[in-house]
Amino acid sequence: MTTAGQGEAKAASHGTTSLWDAAEARQIMETYRGLDGALMPILHALQERFGYVDDAAVPDLADLLNLSRAEVHGVITFYHDFRRTPPARHALHLCRAEACQSVGARALEAHVKRKLGVDYHHQTPDGRWSLGAIYCLGNCACGPSALIDGETVGRLTPEKLDALMREAEAGRLEAAE
Amino acid sequence: MSAVRVYVPGDSSAVAVGANRVAHALERLAREKKVEIEIVRNGSRGLYWLEPMVEVTTSEGRIAYGPVAPGDLAGLFEAGFLSGGQHALRLGRPEDIPFLKNQERLMFARCGITDPLSVEEYRAHGGFRGLAKALRMQPQEIVSEVTESGLRGRGGAGFPTGIKWKTVLETKAERKYIVCNADEGDSGTFADRMIMEGDPFLLIEGMTIAGIATGATKGFIYIRSEYPDAFRQMGRAIEIARNTGYLGPNVLGSGKAFDLETRLGAGAYICGEETSLLESLEGKRGVIRFKPPLPAIKGLFGQPTVINNLLSFASVPVIMDDGANFYKNYGTGRSRGTQPFQLAGNVKQGGLIEKAFGVTLKELIYDFGGGTLSGRPVRAVQVGGPLGAYLRADQLDIPMDYEAFAAVKAMLGHGGIVVFDDTVDMAQQARFAMEFCAVESCGKCTPCRIGSTRGVEVIDRIIADQDRAKNLRLLDDLCETMVDGSLCALGGLTPFPVQSAIRYFPEDFDKPSRKAAE
Ligand SMILES: Cc1cc2nc3c(=O)[nH]c(=O)nc-3n(C[C@H](O)[C@H](O)[C@H](O)COP(=O)(O)O)c2cc1C
Ligand code: SF4
Ligand code: FES
Hints:
The structure holds two protein chains of two kinds. Chain A is an alpha+beta fold. In chain A, 40% of the residues lie in helices and 11% in strands. The model of chain A is unreliable at 1-15 (pLDDT under 50). Chain B is α/β, with parallel strands linked by helices. Chain B has a five-stranded mixed sheet, covered by helices on one side. A five-stranded mixed sheet of chain B has the order 13-12-16-14-15.
């Protein structure tokens, strides 16, 4: 059994999210509990469905997988991907790594911070955008790169990024299928 | 006339610069014009400055056009590109483009050429021959062949792959595992991703051979979450391999079992380190384990485990098929075979260059890469990811060889090359190295966890010209403490980019006083 359908972890930070539903969360946990090392696949599946992993999931996960709550909490907080609060409507992650730096990532970062008025790991006050940092998307020959609502975009300039963000806001960002 | 085959890469880097938009527009236009086409989403050939690179099948072979934007398509149709017509974007036959022509593609022999999910095409291009051969051999013979080839791990440390496999083969256990490290976290690298997206059966074949060679029946591929497309593609390929008898309880009717599962990382660079990766696979925090025991003896779930980089596994089918002697004829010194070098950053022609070890950094950057994208002089080059040393423009004659790099306190790592022009500020690069270590530290050792944060502060003071001499000494001490007191290479190697930046680019750490002097 492969963990099909779990490739959307980052894509899940937008659009498809809804309020936390404990019953549905438990169903998701059941689906993946049989996997070896089930905790990570379950956390990805929860985040894919709800956009974050609510603290309410911790005791259920601990019971299900025979772990302490501290262990479950430790895993959720160790990994940069897992969010414990609902996401903004749209997520922008800028690549901060070296190959992107060499083609203007720092200038792009300054532009975005000015435009959104927030620093990394924050959301705009209107809840429209969150700004995250990411370290390499494997798009290093076509940088600078970013992830917009889970889609990798490359060869960015401030103008091109602005246009892509407008597309995302209008719900018609078409980078991947 | 039957449908013309048109290739539009589904590779995520090609997609990031518009390949899906091109594919959709192409479909629409062909329908409007009532032309029958068959669009294949191939992998990338690795000529990234030309992506999206569209190829059509003609009587003279495949003809490429690129980089294609959706707006170019109307003109391309007008030029008759479906039969190879003239157009400003016409590149001719891809294999005649010098960047590709001058490579030695063993591992990347198929990537970009075949339909990535077609078993038939994989086989037609030499796929699964290595596995068929391995199934007729004794496990010891397979391991000897791999050892004999001189193959060294492509994940960074360059450990002989055959020796690792031998340990697992000789360790008795109920269960053994094969784990593929597809965490590929180094900036400037994308070869693992290209294989997963563009030639996924190659990885399946390599891992299956490892299973047959060591007596392991189960494998996991740990893929970073930044690669969702690769994750999905591997899942599909595994499903297909299972349905066609290449994976499962009876691999190709041999009576031997081997199966694979994929797992997704969660945005932690440290999980590329093998013991941290195993912890993560077990569903835990990715904290480094003490070694010994080696994973080969006590690895995943306490069982003997082969853990290799994706490119190490992907090298094995060719070694089995063409033999250790064929493979080891490529290369230089103790670096045998070919390596997919990844040329990235500020370079005119970035992409994937598979070459025998021994090619120089200069040849890769200038002959293949064509110099910087900005047209300004090259000033610094970082090889081997965020823990690799920075080199100066006058050091580029160095051959790509593990020992040659070690001799100048640098490393080849996973083969990533990041080029910077003369606008780079090396004090900022040194600061970033420390900051990255602080962000990604697993937290187990104080020198790494706390030292890196101190490092950022000290570099900030140097940049601000506060007690420069004293702070430079302090930074040096801090680096020594990190080298000596870190359990793994994150804390242990972060000083290399920092100290190389200071050693080779001292003027960047002395800006205020230079300004004053001007
Ligand atoms: C901080 C750190 C990050 C690493 N990241 C990776 C990685 O992303 N991919 C990889 O294959 N090896 C990585 N390694 C090396 C692995 O620990 C290990 O050496 C490798 O998986 C062994 O496979 P090989 O012998 O085929 O190279 C990393 C090591 C360290 C210390
Ligand atoms: S050096 Fe850093 S990352 Fe490595 S084990 Fe120590 S704290 Fe963890
Ligand atoms: S460094 Fe930005 S995509 Fe690799």
